[in-house]
Amino acid sequence: MSLSAWRQFQFYESLPIRDPLLGDDSPLYSDPTLSSCASIDSTHFLLATNSRRVKLINLKDSKIEHSFNAFEDGYHISCIKVIDKTFAAVIGEKTGSPQLINIYRLAKLPKDEHIYHSRIILKSGANTFPLSVVSISKDLSCIVVGYVDGKVLLIRGDIARDRGSSQRIIYEDPGKEPVTSLFLNNDASHCFVATTSKIMLFNTTGRNKGQPDLVLNSRYGVDLNCGYLNPYTNEFICSVNGSLEFYKQSGEKHSLPVELTSIKRIHQVNKNQIMLVSEENPTKSTVLNSDSFTSPIINKVIIVDILNQVIVWNTFISSTVIDIFKAQEKHVKILYLLASDGVLYKITKKSLEDQLNIVIQKEAFPFALKLAQQNNMEKTKIQNIHKIYGDFLYNKNMKEEATEQYIQCLDVIEYSDIISKFGVEETRDPEDMKNLAHFLWALIKRDIAKPDHVTLLLIVLIKLKDSSGLDYFLKHYNRSGQFVEDKDIEAEDLDDEAYFYSDHNLFDLDLILSLLKETKFITESYQFARKFVKDAIYTVEILLFLIQDTSAALEYTKSLPIDDALRILTTFSKDMLERLPNDTNALLIDVFTGKFKSTEYRKDITKVPESTAERVTSEFKTVFYSYTSFFNYMNKSSGTPSTSEESSIQNGPPIPTYHPPRPSIVFSSFISRPFEFVVFLEACLESYQRFEGFADDKQVILTTLYDLYLSLANDDIEERSSSWAAKAKNVLKESNKLVSSVDNATQGSTTNKRIDNSLMMLISHMNGVNPFSLDEEKDDEDNLLYTLMGDSKEALLSVFKSMTLTDTPTNCLTFFRTHANKEPDLYRSALTYFTSSKSILHEIGGEQVVKDKILNPITKLNILSLLEIIQLLSNTDVVTYGLIQEILVNYMENEQEEITRGEKLIDSYQSELHDKKDKLRSMLDVDKPKEIRVKNEKCRRCNTLLDLPCVFFKCGHIYHQRCLDEERSNTEGKKLFKCPKCLVELETSNKLYENQKELTKKADMLEMLLAEDDKGDRFKIMTEFIGRGGLEYYEETI
């Protein structure tokens, strides 16, 4: 691609600096005698003027800091070069004399032509031709000089230390064509040489016998100043026949057409940018066409970026460019162009931000991104360019390309803004939804998506009906909310149970599942539920009602832990029983008998095993009437050897690893399925008998089974009716045994719960069956009762209440008389029943029978109070006052006798209290003398005759003083003793007294006790508080 097709940008800015001493006797760089110049830094330059004079100028201060003559008279300076900001090489020529190269230290410039650091006299034989080009290595170890007649002179030595050098001619052009370009490579091992007809490569370290090591171009040469060495790549760049050619030491070459035929200078700006100076021919004017007017010289100066293939600077200079040199100021590289009109052009590169702004303004976004990346720009700034580029593409309706750009700048954009551009509700264009999906995929893959973004992606995929996208999501998006690109994680993800105990909210699963159902994504609904639903019930619901694969639902249930399997069965067992009754019943039996063990679940829901499919077709044809037949059939159909239930028990049944749940929680699932219910209950009953489960749960099973058997005996066909009745009889016997065993075990215990099977009588009555007739071996009433209910007190009361509803009053009275001594509560029920109506009272013999058989035993045994009797009888108008007259009279007489006895007891207490007060008063009377008998009395401690000193206590006990322990000294200094025999009683009295004093201060305790016992005997609390001295205060000290 030629330069004419390259885009142009102004990445550089030029500042023309006119010589401030222009017109002065000593100008800086506008001297017409200027022959060469070189830069030391951004402000200091070396100039050669007046043939042999060297000036050091300061551009910043606009002055000449130093000047000296480099050579004697007659010499002309043809070239000045600065080597590594340390040395300066000045080359002088004189007709008829050899050329000289003087080396100066920049830090120590001389004052005249006789002082220099080192001097080299060029030995080119009888050559009188002038120099054309010179190349000097950075360490001053090698210098190559080219002549106008085609000779090339090589100089090697330790020139920097002035230790001498050697010279030899390495090439002589046979056609005497001038050397136009000559450059040493970075290590000075090779030298690129160009004449006007060819380009060559020489090795500077060995003998070449006057011939080049490699001819790079034998057809075309290079004009003067139209070649340069790229120090970054060690390539020789030159202008050849309208193209830029790049040569390596190996001879490799590549070209760049520039379509500039009049290139005058080439200069390497940096690694990828080259400055080209070409002379432009001005358009001929039709206004002035006189030979007296010459056309002005116009130079076009451009900087091309060969890496990005753009022109980064383009300008015109209306004078000849004398030289181009580099400098650096504070890490900023500067180019100087010295023009023949005395103007120095300072060319600096614009900042990267300014360059990017220029490119963005021209909408060259790909180049802007490339430029930012090449300059290692901050990531966020690069992403801002992507964002601007994305907005530009979006406005151009290139939405797919815009999406790609938005994905590249996720750190600097608002996701909601991009989503709103492709909103699902605002457009029906599927392409927009695809772009939105692509953007959301990027968020997920970079692990920066929020639950709403994941939800939106799935919604878009569903609307696009992209089943492959949904499948891809399932395979690579794990339960931790991370996207794993390199492998299919679905299998291992399903084995990760930690997800079910986490609080991760990955996306709106309920919404996604509902949309999948609406759009008929049946398989995907199941897969999403299986992987992401924490509640297994949802998965089973899909299998049952959406996929309608009951067999798969059962297998999935079998793969779950027992807790989840139980929840599923309590929820869906009714539906499962309707579709696969036997398989479902088998699973229910396993769960509720403790045999359940989790199995591995098959993953292909569309593939149903043949054995299961065969059972589905014949399921409704196989009905079982007992657990034994069901057990044998299921073993046979599953491929295990047919064996009886008894034999399996003998071989050692598996011990449950969990506590089986109560079967009653699934009883409602068996509605309208009595035969499956029978099988289930019999299996549960067998399990309870085998492992000795809770008696109350077992009784529930017996009661339910009894009701079921009786119902089937009435509703089933006649051939099986007797069989059901026989089973009901056995269940009744089993229940009676259970009640008896529990009563025996709980006799005398207040904590254990007793078993009540009275509900069986109600069941019998509802089914029109006499429970006493089920047991033909027992004839008398007691035996029939015990057969049905046992002999518990609750059972007696329940039977009596049942008889009041179903039997005659006479039989009820007989039952009462027989069992009244076992259950006192029968008296209350009997009194209420027999006085409930006149007919009942008359049938049993009237009020006298009630009085003799019920009321008299009640009063005698004190079962009910008189108030309770009156309350019971006041609820009916059947009996008369005469029934309780005698009882009331006896009650009054007994109360009067009790009052009399109480009065006598009070009198005796008052007499005793009076005597004790007199005795206490006499003991506390200090002034009244008391006679003490000492003679022939013994010490109560040592049991020897008393002698003085002795101590007498008012309690009547006397001791030797030596036998007593001194308790303490009082304020008068006397010794204080306490009676050893009365010490315990004294301390107890003091303690009681202290408690009474403390109680008087705790009135809030009384309020708290009264508040807590709001419905109890508050009067008792008050009297007890007063009795403990709560309202007294005693100042006496005992």
Automatic annotation (TrEMBL):
GO biological process: endosome organization; Golgi to endosome transport; histone catabolic process; intracellular protein transport; late endosome to vacuole transport; regulation of SNARE complex assembly; regulation of vacuole fusion, non-autophagic; vacuole fusion, non-autophagic
Keyword set, alphabetical order: Membrane, Metal-binding, Protein transport, Transferase, Transport, Ubl conjugation pathway, Vacuole, Zinc, Zinc-finger
Lipid bilayer topology: Peripheral membrane protein
Catalysis: reaction(s): S-ubiquitinyl-[E2 ubiquitin-conjugating enzyme]-L-cysteine + [acceptor protein]-L-lysine = [E2 ubiquitin-conjugating enzyme]-L-cysteine + N(6)-ubiquitinyl-[acceptor protein]-L-lysine
EC number(s) from the headed UniProt entry: 2.3.2.27
Oligomer and partners: Component of the homotypic vacuole fusion and vacuole protein sorting (HOPS) complex. Component of the class C core vacuole/endosome tethering (CORVET) complex.
The UniProt record lists the keyword Cytoplasm: no
TM region(s), chain numbering: none
Ranges for domain RING-type: 939-982
Enzyme class: transferase
Protein name from the UniProt record: E3 ubiquitin-protein ligase PEP5
CDD domains: RING-H2_Vps11
InterPro entries: Clathrin_H-chain/VPS_repeat, PEP5_VPS11_N, VPS11, VPS11_C, WD40_repeat_dom_sf, Znf_RING, Znf_RING/FYVE/PHD, Znf_RING_Vps8
GO molecular function: phosphatidylinositol binding; protein-macromolecule adaptor activity; ubiquitin protein ligase activity; zinc ion binding
Source species: Naumovozyma dairenensis (strain ATCC 10597 / BCRC 20456 / CBS 421 / NBRC 0211 / NRRL Y-12639) (Saccharomyces dairenensis)
Top-level taxon of origin: Eukaryota
Subcellular location: Endomembrane system; Vacuole membrane
A Gene Ontology term for the protein's cellular component: early endosome membrane
Swiss-Prot/TrEMBL CHCR repeat ranges: 406-582
SMART domains the UniProt entry points to: RING
